[in-house]
Amino acid sequence: MAMEEYVYELRDLKNKAPKIFGIPTGTKLDEMFYTVNYDEKQDRFIKKPLGGIPHLAVMNITGIPDTGKSLLVEQFAVYQAARNYPVLFVTVESPANFLYTALKQKAQVLGLDFEKVEENMIVIDASQNAELREDMSSLLDTMAYAIKKKNTKNVVIDSVTGLYEHREVLARQIVRQLFNFLKKWNQTALLVSQKRSSQSSETAEAAGGLAVAHIVDGTIVMDKEIINSKWSASLYRRNIGEVVRTIRIDGCRLVPHSSDTYIFEITDTGLIDIKGPLSKITGGD
After folding, report:
1. What is the pLDDT of residue 207?
2. What pLDDT score was predicted for residue 278?
3. Alpha-carbon distance 54 to 25, whole Å?
4. For the chain, what is the HEC assignment?
5. Which domains does the chain carry?
6. CB-CB contact of 145 with 138 (8 Å)
7. What is the pLDDT, as a whole number, of residue 169?
8. Contact 38, 19 (CB under 8 A)
9. Which one, of 185, 189, 182, 261, lies nearest residue 218 by Cα?
10. Diameter of the chain measured on Cα atoms
């Protein structure tokens, strides 16, 4: 039986197409996504930074442990909440009271009004409830309640990996349900996913594996390397024993993006500080 409600003339979609603009993260990640528009005066296409992650994108933030994934999404969450764009934060790993402390510190370091952050953020603590972690219907119903309650514009889930621990055969199904849910509710979302340390950063698995990367709109890979040879020390212009952290956009189906790998640091106060392209820092073109 044909399902006619899912068949469109292309022109029917004109008024349903989302506007392309950036949702700022408060980091230089905002400069790594682009728009390309035709300039009639110059008779050529002009590329300029989008100013954030794409509006309504569902992005996968992945990497091995201790690469800064949670710090990045926390920074994004407080930055958006302080700008009066409500955020739903689903914590799957860390109990909510610990999250409160981390978010308050982020706001203080960034010079943001924490009262606004408190007012514009709603939290689901799935770390303390097995039903929320293991029953997608319960989790999605709870998320829908929270989104309506606070009229949220952004969602952070840290981490989606915690929703399919010990049952990775269901990972693709769970991520697909989440993706469709977030699209239905018009949310811009960051999903943290864990990568095994044995998976090379250049492989498809580095983007969270087939379960996540092939479903979401795009993937951001965070990585780290310990300088343990003279060759690495020379390449990165660091001392042996130091840690070099990198971040790259591994794909985005919504807008163009930089193909460079960027160097970043985690500051003493726990902020993500993206310095610039690795190629320039190491002396390349």
Report:
1. 47
2. 86
3. 11
4. CCCHHHCCCHHHHHHHCCCCCEECCCCHHHHCEEEEEEECCCCEEEEEECCCEECCCEEEEEECCCCCHHHHHHHHHHHHHHCCCCEEEEECCCCHHHHHHHHHHHHHHHCCCHHHHHHCEEEEEHHHCHHHHHCHHHHHHHHHHHHHHHCCCEEEEECCHHHCCCCHHHHHHHHHHHHHHHHHCCCEEEEEEECCCCCCCCCHHHHCCHHHHCCCCEEEEEEEEECCCHHHHHHHCCCCCCEEEEEEEEEECCCCECCCCEEEEECCCCCEEEEEEHHHHCCCC
5. 24-196+209-282 (3.40.50.300)
6. no
7. 79
8. no
9. 189
10. 66
Phi-psi sector, 155: left (phi>0), alpha (psi -120 to 50), beta: beta
- With tokens 């390309």, the residue in question is 36
Which tokens hold the place of 241?
């024993």
- Which pLDDT belongs to residue 62? 92
| CB 213 within 8 Å of CB 63 | no
How large is the angle between the packed helices 171-184 and 136-150, nearest 10 degrees? 20
Which residue do the tokens 């914590």 mark? 91
Report CA 49 to chain centroid distance, whole Å. Answer: 17
Mean pLDDT, 10 residues at a time, the chain of 285 residues: 89 90 94 91 91 96 92 97 97 93 94 96 95 95 97 96 84 93 97 72 52 87 91 86 93 93 94 90 61
What tokens does 181 get?
Answer: 């849910």
pLDDT of residue 189: 98
User: How far is 119 from 165, CA to CA, in rounded Å?
Assistant: 32
**CA 215: distance to chain centroid?**
14
Q: 7 with 22: CB under 8 angstroms? A: no
